[in-house]
Design a protein that fits this description.
The protein is of the alpha/beta class and 457 residues long. It contains 16 helices and 14 strands.
Length: 457
């Protein structure tokens, strides 16, 4: 009978038998390794089992035979034959395996037990982290988040044929596209916001980025269909790092009601609000408070804090339509040793995109354009501050740009979509009614101007 390996504090007898059966099955049939590529070395609870599995993988990946002789030889080369437990242990593994055909079942047991074991180990590690010294609480939360991420399995990608994925593909064809209306007719008629997008909304200071983002936010959370307002796209979460929540509410209320923005921020001037204004404000607030629209006015937000909040809201509300961060460059993004600031920002944009794809929402990040963009007729993607990975990770990049053009005494803002995944590029013209914090469509220009430049529609 196979000698029992001493168990660790987190492993069980059943788990060890499953590990031995996996290794024994591979010794009986090397090709069975291909069936359990999902199993990681760290999933084995016993040190010698981890070593044996690691050697098996090494031999197989280098097109060598996996058997008693080759495994023993590798242990001898490393001078770790004693760690193997003797050559006879390999023979016992093979003879103890019930059937190599059941290897996937054995491997799933090993992996499931490993998940539980790492959970117990995580609890111990959190105790150690809690007793360590940190500059602030956010660094502590980041350390705990990293521990949680570490227990997740590192899934191996698997090649699949068209025949294997037929049902999945036709289910995809027959399902309704996961899109979200923004409330902007021009944008929605061109390319509705797809869940999973990372959307960069960029511009120079005071061009109206926040107003644009808030108009998107309200449009996404209050989608109008059949003459009624629906909030079934999910909740919208807004992180504001420069303005408090009442400043954002002033902008949203002005946008919805048409009450002059200056009157809102100055509390109606000296005479207060008129009865008509007060009624419109009350009605607008009553309608908005029924919608799943949330604001956090905290400076120096971290991507880990956003991720934790997203998880909580996903669990509570089921659906998230959008996450909006105003703005990227003033987030708390600590650089690691030997890391440049643009690389640190790249880590954040990659994580943002992963969150959007995992939890199926639109992640809108506001971003600053560098000063050098003012020397051009229009901005380029390289004008994004610390552009590095931003332009690569983004699915959509929208520039808000003014060049002194006005229409009917109002500033014309050009919305330039410099990048659009699956939809290409486009550009539109708007009038920014700052006194209502609202973007409205600008009249279309006749094709061809006197300078021969491309017109915006």
């Amino acid at each position: 009978m196979l000698a029992m390996t001493q168990t660790s504090s987190y492993s069980s007898i059943e788990e060890i038998y499953a590990e031995q059966s996996v290794l024994g099955a591979i010794l009986l049939d090397q090709t069975k390794l291909d069936d359990i590529r999902f199993l990681e070395v760290r999933d084995f609870s016993q040190e010698r089992h981890r070593l044996i599995y690691e050697v098996m993988h090494y031999l197989d990946e280098n097109d060598k035979i996996v058997d008693f002789v080759t495994i023993t030889e590798r242990f001898q080369m490393r001078k770790r034959l004693d760690d193997l437990g003797g050559v006879s242990y390999l023979s016992e593994l093979a003879s103890a395996c019930p059937s190599s055909e059941n290897i996937k079942h054995y491997a799933e047991i090993v992996r499931s037990r490993a998940h539980r074991r790492r959970g117990l180990e995580l609890a111990e590690n959190i105790k150690e982290v809690a007793n360590a010294e940190y500059e602030n609480d956010e660094d502590y939360f980041s350390a705990v988040e990293e521990l949680f991420d570490g227990i997740r399995p590192q899934d191996a990608n698997e090649m699949r044929s068209f025949a294997q994925t037929r049902d999945k593909y036709f289910k995809h064809l027959n399902s309704k596209a996961e899109k979200i209306l923004t409330g902007d007719k021009k944008v929605d008629s061109w390319a509705q916001a797809w869940r999973g997008w990372l959307w960069i909304l960029a511009g120079r200071p005071s061009v109206g980025k926040t107003a644009r983002a808030l108009q998107y936010a309200y449009g996404m959370v209050a989608q109008e269909r059949d003459g009624k307002i629906h909030a079934d796209a999910g909740c919208v979460l807004i992180w504001s790092q420069e303005m408090d929540e009442n400043e954002l509410k002033d902008r949203i209320v002005s946008n919805i009601t048409g009450v002059n923005y200056n009157r809102l921020i100055n509390k109606g001037f000296e005479d207060g609000f008129t009865p008509g204004e007060r009624k419109r404000i009350d009605e607008a607030y009553c309608n908005v408070e029924k919608l799943p629209l949330y604001i956090c006015d905290s400076s120096g937000v971290t991507i880990d804090e956003i991720r934790a909040t997203v998880r909580r809201f996903k669990k509570k509300h089921g659906k998230i339509a959008a996450v909006i961060v105003d703005y990227l460059q003033i987030m708390n993004i600590p650089t690691r040793k030997g890391e440049r600031q643009d690389q640190a920002i790249g880590r954040v944009t990659k994580t943002a995109k992963q969150l959007a794809r995992t939890y199926k929402f639109v992640f809108i990040m506001l971003s600053q354009l560098s000063r050098k963009s003012e020397d051009r007729d229009e901005p380029k993607m390289s004008d994004l501050k610390e552009s590095g990975a931003i332009e690569q990770d983004a699915d959509v990049i929208e520039f808000l740009w003014t060049n002194g053009e006005s229409e009917q005494g109002q500033t014309v803002v050009q919305s330039i979509f410099a990048k659009g995944r699956n939809v290409g590029v486009n550009r539109f013209r708007y009038l920014f009614k700052w006194w209502e914090q609202k973007y409205v469509e600008a009249p279309e220009k006749a094709s061809g101007d006197k300078n021969g430049k491309r017109n915006y529609k």
